[in-house]
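Hello everyone,

My group is preparing for a crystallization screen and wants a predicted model to guide construct design. The compound we'll soak is zinc ion. Before spending weeks at the bench, it would help to have a computed complex in hand. I've included the protein sequence and the ligand's SMILES below. Output in structure-token form would be ideal because that's what our pipeline reads.
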Amino acid sequence: MTKDFRLILGLEIHLHVKTAKKMFCNCSADIYSAEPNTHVCPTCLGLPGALPVPNKHAVELTQLLGIALGCTLNLDSRFDRKHYFYHDLPKGYQLSQYDQPLCVGGSLKLRNGKTIELERIHLEEDTAKSFHSKDDTLIDFNKSGMPLIEVVTKPVITSAEDAAEFGRMLRDLARFLNISDADMEKGQMRVEPNISVRTVEMERANELPEYKVEVKNINSFKYMEKAIRYEVKRQTEILIGGKMPAQENRGYDEKADATLPQRSKEDAHDYRYFPDPDIPPMRFDQAYFDGLKSSMPELPGAAYLRLTSVLGLSAVAAEMLTSGPGLGLLQKFNDLSQVADPVKVANLLLNKPGYRDLEKDEFLQKMQSDESTIDDADIILATVKNVIAQNNKAVEDYRSGKDSAIQYLVGQVMRETKGKANPGLSEELILKELMS
Ligand SMILES: [Zn+2]
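Reply:
Good plan to model first. Here are the tokens for the complex, ready for your pipeline.
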């Protein structure tokens, strides 16, 4: 067997959906700074007899993400029960989607040109949160029943960097479309890479390994990259030793910079999926999908192309306005670039302090007055020398201790330049001249 092994991985990414209420009940979804067990009701506590009612807005937002990623939206979809036993899941099953998810297929093109194909996007409920101490396990049910989008890629990712890039672009898109705040520190976005390594021969034959290792619930892209690198090394060593890595779930321990085994991974049939009998199947029509599509703003990828090829922005400026925190400025840029030079607007928004927070009219006013201000020290200095030569009285006053004489001289410079000289710079230059 060759000793050259290559990484192959798929991603499962969970996003808390930005809705007012939880997924199947009327509890507020604003749980992030709430006291434990204050956003709960019989439904999200899993009490017998409580009936779940799906959150329409969460369904719409999931479909909107599907449209943005080029998925096919299913006309028929439904919720299924996914059974497993764990203390953070009081019903004994999670409401999720099995063979009729809201969205199938689709893809996301990375900035390096690679296309990452998607398997599906479905909607489910989050579980409660447990806290383990030495003697006890405490459970907070605020998170139980939170609406959760799961995006599943095909196993097509071949580097840790691409996996992180996919995650960042999905986070940016979800924030841009107001689908999720995707704050990883608050648990609003979690990534789970399914990692295997295979021989070069298998890669050429497009063959997948017989096992995969899922690293659960990672809350930072940096840790995800580290976990992937650790797994590649660990799995490669096992394969070189002539064994097959176990199919299992592992967790990433950031202090040890290592992954550790968790429970062994169930096959799909162990979850005993079946349609939830309390929730009627969902049926959509094309007119509804068309309405959602028409509400879709221009997406960051398309905006990048327009900014560079139509508006003449540099690749760097366009990239800054269409990814990460700069995406928050894109709408403002679009408004302003209709009425002012796009390249100048981008430069002021991205590089000049004091512009970002201005309203459109204030921005344009400031832009105009800043443009006409003379900031060139050489030009102002010539005027300053003139003014000093022509105002002996004021110069003498200053030298005899009358500080206000400086303001008189600045006023003269302003008069000479028809108010365009930068006053602060003028004063600085006058003082320098008088001291020399
Ligand atoms: Zn509830």
